[in-house]
Design goal:
single chain; 235 residues; eight-stranded parallel β-sheet; globular
């Protein structure tokens, strides 16, 4: 059985234990530093959502994967950008992806909106929230989230579809629930605000904690190591 199919069984079981339908949870393959061939293999085994972290890598890998799948008569996956994005790299990313999950400031959202206006469909985005105020991570502060949502929802070529977070890891299983629960509460608390009605997704949980994230309401889990194997450092 492929790694993807084994993971999908684990995801489905975690959803059922949480009293949820497995269809509510998207397994997104986080393919940072992984060869296009590995992504193609995973897609041919059932993976339909793939995330990239770096603009330059995405510019090369996404066309390579899409081309190989097309040659095999297989549909392309839905591509997401999940890393920190510099505003001047938006021009590279917007033509390639369906969703940018890491929007944390209005200046980036405005540039994405401008670039999305040059294509024939809106761009979905998620707002990244820095739940633990870590300076090494991107994300808007929770208290600034309502303003960012309001401003992004007013941009004509963007559709804000959810929230994303990368919580600090915790060895305490109960404490590990807290940031995921917090992100869900933030999402639910915005439901009556302008733009809040479209906040369907919670992108949270990775290889080591995705079952906990699913229990707390994750709709997108970003899986790298458990799907593609340990990452090797690039020279």
């Amino acid at each position: 059985m492929s790694r993807y199919k084994e993971l999908r069984l684990r995801v489905d079981e975690a959803a059922r234990k949480a009293g949820r339908s497995p269809s509510e949870v998207i397994l997104l393959g986080a393919s940072k530093a992984k060869a296009a061939e590995l992504v193609v293999e995973a897609c041919r085994n059932g993976l339909v959502h793939v995330g990239e972290n770096f603009a330059q890598e995405a510019r090369e890998k996404i066309p390579a994967v899409d081309g190989a799948l097309a040659e095999a008569g297989h549909p392309r996956p839905s591509w997401h950008f999940i890393g920190r994005l510099q505003r001047n790299k938006a021009r590279l990313i917007v033509p390639l992806v369906e969703c940018v999950q890491s929007v944390d400031r209005l200046s980036l959202a405005r540039e994405l909106d401008r670039r999305a206006g040059e294509r024939d469909r809106p761009l979905e985005i998620m707002l990244q929230v820095n739940l633990s105020a870590e300076t090494t991570k991107g994300g808007v502060a929770p208290d600034a989230l309502p303003t960012l949502l309001r401003d992004c929802a007013a941009l004509p070529h963007l559709r804000v579809v959810g929230l994303m977070a990368i919580p600090a890891p915790s060895a305490d299983s109960e404490k590990a629930h807290e940031p995921f629960r917090r992100l869900r509460e933030l999402r639910d608390g915005l439901s009556d605000q302008s733009g809040g009605e479209d906040l369907v997704h919670l992108s949270m949980g990775m290889s080591g904690d995705f079952e906990i994230a699913i229990a707390e309401g994750a709709t997108v889990i970003r899986i790298g190591t458990a799907l593609f194997g340990a990452r090797e450092n690039k020279p």
